[in-house]
Design goal:
heterodimer; A: alpha+beta; 39% helix; elongated; B: mainly alpha
Chain lengths: 205, 317
Amino acid sequence: MIDLVALGFFGFFVVLCGWVRRSPRPARARAHLVLFLFGLLLFANLSQIDLWPFTRFIPASFKPDPYSQTKTIEFVALDENLNEHPVDLRVFSPVPGWVMEIFVVEELRHGSDDTVLMRDLLELAERGRRELARGESIGPQQWLGNAAIPFWLLHGEYEEVPDAPWVGLRVYDTYFVPVEFGGRLDRRVIDRRVLHGEIVLENAR
Amino acid sequence: MLVDRLFEWWKRRETRPESLVEARMVSAILAFHSLWLLLSRPDLPRFPSLPESLTGTVSILARTRALMPGSETIEWMIYGALVTGLVAILIDRAPGWVALLAGVGMMHFGAMEEILAGIPHAYFGGFTIPALAFPLLYAGRMRESWSLTAVKGLVVASYFFAGTAKLIYSGPSWFQASTLQGWLLTRHSYADAPLALWLAERPLFCWLAVLTVGLLELGSPIVLFRPRLGTIFGLVAISGHIAIRYAMGIFYPGILLALILFDWSSFDRGAAPHQISGESAQDADDEGGEARRERERSDHGEQQTLRPRGKKFGPQW
């Protein structure tokens, strides 16, 4: 329902812009438009109900504790020897890495049949591996190279890939402490990993 | 009292002389930012061709919200048309309706990008401000002062509400050195943040940084009332975003939008403030009689300058 509400607000906003341009009483029309736009933004940001593009802006609004356990999602691919390699999340483009993390974990947690999903993700990862192995640019850098917006900063680049195809894919919740207890500032301690999903091709076992 | 003063301020912003430089720069910055964003997301039109195990989870309501036609061919057509339109806006060769459609196009791709996860992060993706700003510019015929102020207001809102969110989620205690140290150390553990440890070990710097962030974010609305401060704010904001890239490994795609806050109208000084003259036949048909009289009253209240000799104005908006 929120989808239709957000679309409705945006559609009304566009219509309002057209009305302002043609209105016989432009001053009043402008006032209505500006009040509508910023009123919605104020509502979204005070209520924290997101009606994108009338959105709430919440970057870095909480306080992380580097001495407590935190969690990240890891995608790892398996080579022919079943060794794990981190997956460069640009292989899932056009789906951004942060979206894929949320999506995959939610889908796997719902208990649905994950075989098809994992197989499709493995195919996407394998397609990306082939492109990286050929030295091609993937994801945001396909056209602009390093002049592209560096979306890859959020998840890192993993361009060293084996020549042989991936034979499996795993998705982990990885729990770690950013800083070791005792105050060392240069160590990330992996506490534990919880496997959410896995696929290994039959001929690889 | 406050409402009266805001109303008076708004009336002053509405009727201030139009600035050709400001109008051109705001639309050009928006267009350039949008082009940079789209060309950095060249796979967007391929979304409908993703495996069914991904796209099949998107509800019909969510597809409607993102105005998704469901065909990769049509997506490429929309993408190509949007890029073409943005280039035309950038070089000041686009009629006004192109800006309106550009806003709708940016909304379409911004929503589609995150549709699998319910649009959790789109405020940060760079599509938000163009989706709202381009229709505003269209409404203001790409030149009217009120619309440029409103676009600046959008940019200010992105900073101001980022500050209020910190207060809502964490309270005033967000603004202390330990918060930034926590961010630096956490981001260092899984991002390319070469300065993170060096900065985290310097509490004095962290205090300075968080207090500056608080001052800039929560004080950002002042640039709407003091345009000259907008240039300083924009420079500090851009510097801050660059610093965050190296300190935390986070890059804000909307970094160039801070340029919109510059006091571009100050570059009109030395020449008499001028109106963009000569309305097109379409504009004349669009406006009612009262609107035309209001514009004439506004014209007579200001010093007039004819178009610069030898310079051909851009398309009639």
